[in-house]
Amino acid sequence: MRKFRKVLDGLTTSSPGATLGSPSGGSGAGTPTAAPTPKEIDVQETLLSEDFQLCKTVRHGFPYQPTALAFDPVQKILAIGSRSGGVRILGRPGVDSYCQHEGGAAVLQLQFLINEGALVTACADDTLHLWNLRQRRPAILHSLKFNRERITFCHLPFQSKWLYVGTERGNTHIVNIESFVLSGYVIMWNKAIELSTKTHPGPVVHLSDSPKDEGKLLIGFESGTIVHWDLRGKKADFRIYYDEAIHSVSWHHEGKQFMCSHSDGSLTLWNLRNTTKPFQVTFPHGKVQKDGRKESCKPILKVEYKTCRNSEPFVIFSGGLSYDKAGRRPTLTIMHGKAITVLEMDYPITEFMALCETPYNNEVQEPYAVVVLLEKDLIVVDLTQSSFPVFENPYPMDIHESPVTSTAYFADCPPDIIPVLYSIGAKHKKTGYSQKEWPITGGTWTLGSHAYPEIIITGHADGTIKFWDASAITLQMLYKLKTSKVFEKSKPAEGRAAELVEEDPFAVQMVSWCPQSRMFCVVGISAYIILYRFSKYEANTQIVSLEVRLQCESEDVISPSENENDPCFSEPGSAHSPQHPHRQPSSPGCGTPEGVKPSIPCLKVKDKMVRVPPGYQAELVIQLQWIDGEPPQQITSLDINSAYGLLAFGNCNGLAVVDYLQKTVLLCLSTLDLYGATDPYQRLTRSPRRHRQSTSGLTELPDNQQSFDMERSKSPTSATESRENSFSRSRSSSVSSIDRDTKEAITTLQFGESYGRKSDALTSPCLWVGTSLGIVLLIPMSIPTDQEERMEEPVTFGPSGAVLMLKGSVLRFGFLDCMGALIQSPYEVWRDTNAAEDPDRPRKRKLIHFSPSSSQETYGDGHLAVVCSERQAKVFLMPSQSCLYVHNITESSFVLRADVVSVCNSVCLACFCANGHIMTLSLPSLRPLLDVSYLPLTDMRIARTFCFTNGGQALYLGSPTEIQRITFSQEMCDNLQEMLGELFTPIETPEVQNRGFLKGFFGGNAHTFDREELFGEAAAGKASRSLAQHIPGQAGMEGMKVAAGGVVGELARARIALDERGQRLGELEDRTALMMTSAESFSKHAHELMLKCKDKKWYQF
């Protein structure tokens, strides 16, 4: 614990220039800029660098660009591989693990070691990896890198330690799973095919062992060649040459037939008794044309042939539709007997897999479901019902239903808000799902002791808002809100208007939510704000619409001399008088030239009475006006305070404050008018329309020395590739040489109790304003305290009493009392305005205030204001406005996100920089505690969606479809193992079914197949060292010990060892008996020979 004491004596009024010029040490905290005072500020800082560690916690959403699928039928867990090298492993709800290959190569194929707690991944860089799943965070045990051949297909037989690997050259190699080294046994392509064949058969596209005999391997080549290889005899039993390319092969469980899918949309069924031609050829979707020919069909990419005990077998395949019907959606076809069912999918099918009861390929399969992996969704079809309904997916796979454009994270919500949102959201859930339970039930997960209410809010390109329950590192949809329902359905625009209107006009730019009062604000890309109230009851309501003009004209030039003697704000009743609904107020600082076209917002709010369901109900819509046919600039900052009943927002032209209780516009000022005579730069007004701000970068604002002249992007989700990586440039932090043409945007706003002027002895409601030039303004307000007066009397504003300055655009405010505790903004306790009123007990507004002076009587009045910009962080003492501490956060980059958050019963300033660094600074001394280079390259998506919350947590959109949550708290890192689910659970492997005497006698597996004897080093020798390179895994020996440490694993190994020992003892007993018989025979013959030769003389021989 470290104690910081600041003694301040004789506080002097410092000008903005003096504050700006305060000394600062490059990476450490700066020195105070004011002389000492008799007051003492004694803050016990408890946070140390040991309290911080950065690690990923969990990843939610659908795996982006999936490529591969695998299922363990005993453990009942599912694995999905992706193009970026990620692997998601899913079990029961709560069991969700994400692991990433270091190289980032695409995952080509996945193979579970069934019921062994391990997974083999084959990647596009021709490397095989063995993952240990017996630990909560999977790790690689071994890797094998192929140097001369490219991997195309892998197959691992059940309960085998030998993995078959097919390559692009047509060869088949065999890998020992235990040691992860190649066997010397290789099936070369030229040995597999006949010598008379003149063409190469192509890459290996299929490998499988025969259900009838494990010693026979079926090899499928892309060209249409199929080879049935005898592993013992090292020769081909038969070869099939078909004139259509093969995509997949599937066995009948008896091992007498197999089915192939081909590139011409056909399915061929082959019988092992006669392999000269297919037993059956079908074109499931190919109709006979008038000329008698079959119409051409698309390839059938995969087929599965699964048998049932009490019904006809299932034939399930993807593709195969005819080419004549353009625009048809991707399909999965299920053939069951004579019934053919075609299931249309919303996205292309990446992979599918039938889930069966048994892991043995020589038993009746009994499929009960089909997992279908689409490009942007995961569905599971119930095969036990004739209508083939889908299961309700318990995982949050629809985060990307519409592209995510904004996020918000709340880790300290009131505990009652989650059940309320869930109960209302549950009423709107889809129906028609299968009645059976979700079939992927593997792993174990418990709630843990460190769970607390957390909510994630996502805003989307189509205007939808989704509330998610994020408690205990899980994610579950609570409630969905459609903001577009507030507006009339718009007609398609024409001409120039069509060019200016957004492609996604309802895209959510930012949200502001007060969990205590349940007030909710949404900012749209089309420069509007919607205010919602929460109610448990449906209601008939009319949405109030306000139009605000925040647009300066080029003809308006304000010289410094005009405002030299004017106060920053005029009288409340004059220029800033309340503006009533449906008026079109003009900015007091911005004139309206003659001949201007009508100001019409591009979206029309519904003006009729509407019936709204329970949940969030729109109360007020604020729209910025179009001026002279030009769209308004986007809103860049927003804050709402339920205790004050006020909403403030700003853009690059100015600031507006709205009283949402009285539905009036209280303040509408250009940025320059905010300063008046206190403008430190004495600039002239210029047209904000000269340079249009890009809408693609929702986080970027014009900086101090540069003005951007970019085209208006179509939507926040359509940023170009060059913009995606635009954070590599550095931004100038100098505020001494400001271009007169630079816009100064309002970048952050916050209501709170503070001291509006240095001379104030008591706190009052204030609005803190931060701009893109690093200037902080403090606007005091006068709000009627009586409830009736509050609804009738106007809120008034006083002249600004503070102008503070920092380097770079201001990002965040935070307030601490003089003991270092966080001061919350005041709020109104939620009350349901639609509930029936009790005439005896009328409802009143209940306000909760957190005054800085209420908890620190012994320390006197005052509080600390933490201000963070793109470059700097400063701590000011209020009301003296003295800078106590300053820290230069970065010189080479700039801060994208900053927040004052609670960690380990204390508070710190957390920052995320454009160069990927995550930093934390102590408060109030701004001492660096953590600085980690987390992301090597930050793109627009991450910058737009990154947000911090209390408890040392943060999140961002790791891919267009996935939310990545991280923590920088050492305590949470320590507890993470307890919070994560177990992927592997000890389960006994199902016993082989009794096949009956006749089946066992006449066919199949009459002789056990010893792969070790065939593929081991003693028999096959060593493989060429140059062919593949073994790479030890990160998990090392510890991971191997963990993998071998399971109870079932030990039992299984002990049982196998006993069986092997018993088998060896039996063999030894047989050999001993044979030797005894041989010895007895030898003794008998020797005795006979002795008797015969006993009386003979030597010369008689």
From TrEMBL:
Keywords of the record: Cell membrane, Coiled coil, Cytoplasm, Exocytosis, Membrane, Protein transport, Repeat, Transport, WD repeat
Localization annotation: Cell membrane; Cytoplasm
Pfam assignment, any one: LLGL
SMART domains found in the cross-reference section: WD40
A cellular-component GO term for this protein: SNARE complex
Membrane topology: Peripheral membrane protein
Compositionally biased residues, Low complexity: 10-22, 574-588, 727-737
UniProt xrefs under InterPro entries: Lethal2_giant, LLGL2, V_SNARE_CC, WD40/YVTN_repeat-like_dom_sf, WD40_repeat_dom_sf, WD40_rpt
Region (Disordered): 1-37, 558-594, 684-739
Keyword check for Protein transport: yes
V-SNARE coiled-coil homology domain sequence ranges: 1036-1096
Biased composition (Polar residues): 694-708
An example molecular function term from Gene Ontology annotations: syntaxin binding
GO biological process assignments: exocytosis; Golgi to plasma membrane transport; protein transport
Classification via PROSITE patterns: V_SNARE, WD_REPEATS_2
Superkingdom field: Eukaryota
Protein transport among keywords: yes
Family to which this protein belongs: Belongs to the WD repeat L(2)GL family.
Name of this chain's protein: Syntaxin-binding protein 5-like
Gene source species: Xyrichtys novacula (Pearly razorfish)
